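WARN no homologs supplied; continuing
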Amino acid sequence: MAEPSFLTAVRESYDTVAADYVERVPPPAEMDPLSRAMLAGFAELVRTAGLGPVADLGCGPGRVTAHLAGLGVSVLGVDLSPKMIGLARHAYPNLRFTEGSMTALKMRDDELGGILAWYSTHHTPPQWLPAVFAEFHRTLAPGGYLLWGDYVGDERLRPTHGYGRPVSYESYLLPLDRMVDLLDQAGLVVTARLEQGPGARVNRPHACLLARKPETP
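OK structure emitted
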């Protein structure tokens, strides 16, 4: 079956911008305090639950993956872009990184104790999100956690350049309540939410959702 065109666009675009992305995107230490706190809370929850490793989906050059590892989490990074995975492996040779798509994860049912989707779903067309969140549910162990963070709004963006290079991906910003509903439809129960307006570091409204796969069906 042919690959969906949006996946091809995302892969090719991030292969193009990979080196510039590393130069232009601040490391986790420079995130806003509330986002760092959500990551720290997520790390504590998955460590305490002890249900399996965390998959950082859309890990890019691996900085947030390494940040979670530094918080004591057993974690692996997954990204569509071979160039991003190459940068991550070079920067963090002690961590595991693999190419893959969140539309069809190469993980067993109930394998993961946690999933981090950190600013990595906004390139996914809304009609594909139910399939993506179904994969999250499938691969999470009962009681496992999802931390989702991304831009929110009601807008479809078609940039021609990103990080100083030509790109062909699109971005789809959805209202936070819509994301909550989509997670609920996938069987993932939202237990906490954080909404933030534009600030010095992020120039768009953005949000985090913490969700959990129920322990019993």
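The mean pLDDT is 96.
OK
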